[in-house]
Amino acid sequence: MTGQQPTAQQRSGFPRRDAEGRILSLGDLLGVSLAGWVIGVLALVLFDWAFAVAGAGDFGRTNGWLAVILPAWLFWDDFRAWDFGAARVVAALSAAVVAVLAGLLVAGLASGLAPLFTGGLAALGFTVGYAVLWFQGVHWLARRTG
User: Any bridge partners for residue 17, and if so which?
Assistant: First the structure.
């Protein structure tokens, strides 16, 4: 199935995508990436709680940054959907740098919390920052570079 065009059914799912597989709106990208973040946080809380009940450590000691796994997977998928060129590379690198800095800033502001919650909030800052900067940046640069 590699190399085939997506069917109408695949294009009508959520998030909505164009014929090349690129996410069509910032709202769709934010919605799906935030849903991925919520799922990641809930999974971390569940695993951390299970390990705490089993006596393998205290609750809240898991690294909350792991909640960014599903959003990062979505961002990678959207990155791959764009044609190779400077627009997607510059947009991705710029968004990544700013989003990591935003996540670190949030982590610093929430430093009094347990690592699970500090990292989870930092992952939220990264997710929102990357989604907004990537989407706006890649569309703006693609229009500028043709």
Answer: 23
Q: Per the structure block, which two tokens stand in for 79? A: 């990155």
Tokens of 95: 């968004």
64 within some domain = yes
Q: What is the pLDDT of residues 41-62, one digit of tens each?
A: 999 999 989 988 888 778 777 8
125 found inside a domain: yes
Q: For residue 107, count CB atoms less than 10 angstroms from its CB and return exposed for 0-12, middle for 13-18, buried for 19 or more.
A: buried
Domain span at 46: 26-143
Q: Are 129 and 99 in contact (CB under 8 A)?
A: yes
Contact 64, 41 (CB under 8 A): yes
Q: Is residue 11 part of a domain?
A: no
Does residue 99 lie in a domain region? yes
Tokens found for residue 9: 């059914």
Global model pTM greater than 0.85: no
Name every residue whose Cβ is closer than 8 Å to that of residue 109 and which is 6 or more positions away in sequence. Answer: none
Q: Which of 69, 122, 118, 73 is nearest to 99 (CA)?
A: 122
Total domains present in the chain: 1
